[in-house]
């Protein structure tokens, strides 16, 4: 994998922006009367790590015209140092288009987190490659890494075609492509014949593939270990075996990664990761982390890993930055990480929680 040394954008993500509504003080959805709202998407969460640390990041998306929610999202992206580009389309009345939203119960103790996704009428289902000037973005301006997740690729036939066309153009101009499978059974139900060819082509265009054993098996049809009930060592060995089969099927990819999570309760997890890069394995053994809200930790792992790549660090640092950024986001009420410095990330990795004055 050869990463460009320059380009106007360090990282570009293709995304469906929406809002997340979370009860205050970790209360259950059915009992709370006070909620907090944030702009969100898996892909912008990935980009947020690099944007917070000074890299130039752009979100390719679509907005509802004259929507207060769209204006809220844009303001949040600007505040987070994330550039954005995409057309606005008319709402089309009260039963027309809107931005997706989800309601998230963070859980507490033995009460598990529960996320309800509501994506009916989602504007990003209409995403098209024609919404963007791809020649300008990837040829004239330049982009070092392009990142997708399986969430936006599986929204609709249109969004899947959009991701493929963007990936083909980016690949033509030497952009490194990152793809996080993010398999969701609720998205795939009854759509396997439609979605699997999209995911297989995206994986074939990708240099970096991220996912767990279930993601790769169900999204790509790659044989792997049975999910659930496995010891960490068994998961690690099973993942390594599966990567061997993935490398045969997708020889263009050279970096593979997954996180390892064991849930003790909603407030405490064991957190680890596996990375294959430059023909070597890097394993971050599970360590206990405190959890305020687990949502977004996986996205921040990817974000930290891509930031370390963009910064020219060796693979041993990629997994460390990923692990630490995931652990950081687990301590936050937001589902995205906003590190203030590399020092903060390194302190989290090293377990240095002493007060800094």
Structure classification: alpha/beta
- Helix content range of the residues, please? 25-40%
The DSSP helix count reads 12
Strand order of the largest sheet: 6-4-1-10-11-12-13-14-15
User: Which oligomeric state applies?
Assistant: single chain
Rg, Cα atoms, Å: 19 Å
Mean pLDDT comes to 94
Q: In this structure, how is the largest beta sheet organized?
A: 9 strands, mixed
Stretches where pLDDT is under 50 for at least 5 consecutive residues are none
Order of helices and strands: EEEHEEHEEEEHEHHEHHEHHEEEHHH
Q: Which shape, going by the Cα principal axes?
A: globular
Number of strands: 15
Strand content: 15-25%
- Give the N-to-C terminal Cα separation: 41 Å
Structural key phrases:
357 residues, alpha/beta, 4-stranded mixed beta sheet, 15 strands, 37% helix
General description of the model:
With 357 residues, the protein is an alpha/beta fold. The chain contains 12 helices and 15 strands. The chain has helices spanning 42-52, 68-79, 134-141, 150-153, 157-172, 185-188, 192-205, 213-220, 232-249, 297-310, 315-329, 342-350; strands at 9-14, 18-23, 35-40, 57-60, 63-64, 83-85, 88-89, 100-105, 114-118, 143-149, 176-180, 208-210, 255-265, 268-277, 280-290. The strands form 3 sheets. A 9-stranded mixed β-sheet has the order 6-4-1-10-11-12-13-14-15, with helices on both faces. It has a 4-stranded mixed β-sheet with strand order 3-2-8-9. Helix 5 (157-172) runs parallel beside helix 7 (192-205) and helix 11 (315-329) crosses helix 12. It starts with 8 loop residues before the first strand and ends in a 7-residue tail after the last helix. The model has no long low-confidence stretch (mean pLDDT 94).
């Amino acid at each position: 994998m050869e990463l460009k040394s320059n380009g106007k954008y360090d990282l570009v993500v293709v995304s469906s922006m929406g809002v997340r509504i979370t009860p205050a003080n970790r209360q259950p959805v059915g009992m709370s009367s006070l909620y907090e709202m944030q702009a969100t998407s898996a892909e912008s969460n990935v980009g947020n790590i690099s944007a917070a640390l000074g890299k130039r990041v752009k979100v390719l998306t679509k907005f509802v015209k004259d929507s207060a929610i769209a204006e809220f999202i844009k303001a949040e992206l600007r505040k987070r140092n994330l550039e954005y580009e995409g057309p606005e389309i008319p709402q089309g009345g009260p039963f027309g288009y809107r931005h997706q939203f989800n309601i998230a119960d963070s859980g507490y103790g033995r009460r598990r987190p529960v996320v309800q996704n509501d994506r009916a009428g989602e504007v990003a289902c209409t995403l098209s490659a024609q919404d963007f000037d791809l020649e300008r973005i990837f040829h004239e301006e330049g982009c070092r890494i392009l990142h997708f997740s399986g969430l936006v690729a599986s929204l609709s036939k249109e969004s899947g075609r959009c991701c493929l066309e963007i990936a083909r153009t980016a690949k033509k101009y030497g952009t490194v492509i990152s793809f996080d499978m993010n398999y969701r059974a609720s998205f795939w139900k009854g759509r396997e014949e439609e979605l699997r060819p999209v995911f297989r082509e995206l994986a074939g265009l990708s240099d970096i593939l991220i996912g767990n054993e279930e993601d790769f098996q169900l999204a790509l049809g790659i044989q792997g270990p049975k999910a659930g009930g496995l010891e960490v060592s068994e998961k690690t060995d099973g993942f390594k075996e599966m990567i061997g089969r993935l490398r045969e099927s997708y020889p263009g990819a050279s970096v593979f990664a997954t996180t390892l999570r064991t849930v003790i309760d909603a407030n405490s997890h064991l957190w680890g990761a596996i990375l294959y890069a430059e023909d070597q394995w890097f394993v971050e053994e599970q360590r206990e982390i405190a959890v305020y809200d687990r949502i977004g930790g996986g996205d921040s792992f990817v974000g930290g890993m891509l930031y370390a790549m963009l910064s020219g660090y060796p693979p041993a640092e990629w997994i460390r930055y990923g692990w630490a950024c995931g652990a950081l986001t687990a301590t936050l009420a937001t589902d995205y990480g906003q590190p203030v410095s590399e020092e903060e990330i390194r302190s989290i990795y090293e377990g240095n929680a002493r007060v800094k004055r």
